[in-house]
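Before relying on records like the one below, remember that each one covers exactly one chain. Contacts with other chains, cofactors or solvent are not represented anywhere in the record.
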Amino acid sequence: MAARAAKDTSQKAPGKAKADDKDGKKGDPEWTTGLKRLYDNVLDEPLPDAFADLLSKLDENGAK
C-alpha cells in the first residue's frame, strides 16, 4: 500500500481574495475586485452625445 502525501492546506481556496488586495475586503472572491474595477471604469466614461441629445429631448417633452 502506498503512503498518501498530506494535502497542502496552505494554498488559498479557489475564488478567495488575496489578503493583500487593496480593492477588496479580506475574504471576498477574486472576481469581485475585477467586477468593481470594470464598473468604476464604465462610470468614468463620458456620456455619448447621442444619448445626451436624447435625454435633452425627453426633458423638453416632459416639461410641456
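Residues 30-44 form the longest helix (15 residues).
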